[in-house]
Design a protein that fits this description.
This protein is mostly helical and 121 residues long. It has one domain (24-115). 61% of the residues lie in helices and 0% in strands. It has five helices and no strands. Helix 2 (26-40) packs across helix 4 (63-88), helix 2 packs across helix 5 (95-115) and helix 4 (63-88) runs antiparallel to helix 5.
Length: 121
């Protein structure tokens, strides 16, 4: 083996997400379960940001607010794809997944603070 190469077993260990040793926030656990359920049911299309939107609330926004919401929906959908990827790969109880779930939940709450239930999650 070349001295610049990492042993394959070491590389595998380095690439494996770490399991969380802390108690998971119940809100984050419930949010994770909701996201996975909606994706599995086809209510959230991982490549269609509009599938995240609550049309009843979204349609009442002005064009500027709709534009900002569209951008945020794209960002949130990227996070959901990452979360679903970790979940499907068996990393359901890792720091990585719960950090991303927490960030997504807090972003959603921030965006909905004044505007109501903009998103179906």
């Amino acid at each position: 083996m070349d001295s610049n190469q990492i042993d394959p077993q070491v590389q595998k260990e380095l690439n494996t997400p770490l399991k969380t040793q802390e108690a998971v926030n119940p809100e984050d656990q419930a949010f994770l379960e909701l996201i996975v359920k909606l994706v599995n049911e086809g209510k959230i299309n991982l490549y269609s940001p509009s599938s995240l939107l609550n049309d009843e609330v979204y349609n009442k926004l002005d064009n500027v607010q709709k534009g900002k919401t569209d951008i945020e929906a794209q960002n949130m959908l990227t996070a959901i794809r990452n979360i679903k990827g970790l979940y499907d790969a068996g990393y359901k109880d890792t720091y990585q997944i719960f950090y991303q779930v927490s960030e997504l939940r807090l972003t959603k709450e921030r965006l909905e603070y004044h505007g109501g239930d903009l998103f179906i999650i």
